[in-house]
Amino acid sequence: MRKKIVAGNWKMNTLLKDGMELAKAVEQQLGEKETDVLVIIAPPYTHLSRISDLINQVQLAAQNCAAASSGAYTGEVSPEMLLSTGTNYVIIGHSERRTYYAEDNYLLNQKVKLALSSGLKPIFCCGEVLEEREAGKLFDVVTEQLQVGLEGLSKEDMQNVVIAYEPVWAIGTGVVATPEQAQEMHHFIRGLLGRMFDDTVAEQTTILYGGSCKPSNAKELFANPDVDGGLIGGASLKAEDFMAIVHSF
Ligand code: PGA
Fold first, then answer.
1. Which of 94, 176, 231 to mutate to test the pocket of ligand 1 (most atoms within 8 A of CB)?
2. Is residue 222 scored above 90 in pLDDT?
3. Pocket residues: Cβ below 6 A from ligand 1
């Protein structure tokens, strides 16, 4: 059975105090109702170590990491540093990193490899922009993102990798992919993982949907056989909304 995951990507939101309150609320609400969903939150770097002390069931992710393990890289944070704060997951290749910070598939591949060798579990993001979808290139784009981004990984490595399909046109826009669009791409990604690795990897890899997922549409999205959860931006900033999404399964 694949792990079901709902992860909250807080992006560059919350000051430390508010972030700590939000994390506490998520932890508390998770304890109130039984679920088999793994719940992850990804606060800004500055909050990780404090929030790590406040959570127990909830897992912690960073939103990015360096491609090098230490040294003269001003402003960067290495996977090992993240681990030392109690962080276990890291979002790699979010479309905002790709777009605003020019992170390409080759750099992302270095980050994925370093994260894995350090013991951090990547949540690797992929997804097409609207023009690519309209031009019918969506499957080619996602194929390249995954083939280059996951290049050189072993089947064993893949046990620690989560994929997030986030169509860029749906991120923060309020335009959500239809359940059919999400299922179509998730099914395609699973097939691709089968060709890149093997059927077991394809069957066992958790594939999350991201992009304007909220309590009102999560149930329909998660009802699809290949959608194993969500990567949630805006709606993860309110504990009630985020937990309503968790309980949408
Ligand atoms: P959104 O963001 O839920 O606000 O659309 C999702 C994401 O960027 O991970």
1. 231
2. yes
3. 9, 166, 171-172, 210-213, 231-235
Among 40, 99, 163, 232, which is best to mutate for testing ligand 1, by the most ligand atoms less than 8 A from CB? 232
Residue 38 tokens, joined:
């793994």
DSSP track, 186-243: HHHHHHHHHHHS-HHHHHH--EEEESS--HHHHHHHHTSTT--EEEESGGGSSHHHHH
Angle between helices 215-222 and 239-246 (to 10 degrees): 20
Enumerate residues 6+ apart whose C-beta is below 8 A from 202: 190, 191, 193, 194
Q: Domain count for the chain, please give it.
A: 1
Q: 1 falls in which pLDDT band (50, 70, 90)?
A: confident
d(CA 82, CA 118): 10
User: Quick check: pTM over 0.90?
Assistant: yes
Domain with 81 in it: 4-246
Question: Is 90 exceeded by the pLDDT of residue 182?
Answer: yes
Q: Which atom of ligand 1 is nearest to the CA of 170?
A: 5
Query: In ligand 1, which atom is closest to the CA atom of 234?
Result: 4
Q: What is the pLDDT of residues 69-128, one digit of tens each?
A: 999 999 999 999 999 999 999 999 999 999 999 999 999 999 999 999 999 999 999 999
Residue nearest to atom 7 of ligand 1 (CA): 233
CATH of the domain at 34: 3.20.20.70
Place 18 in a pLDDT band, splitting at 50, 70 and 90. Answer: very high
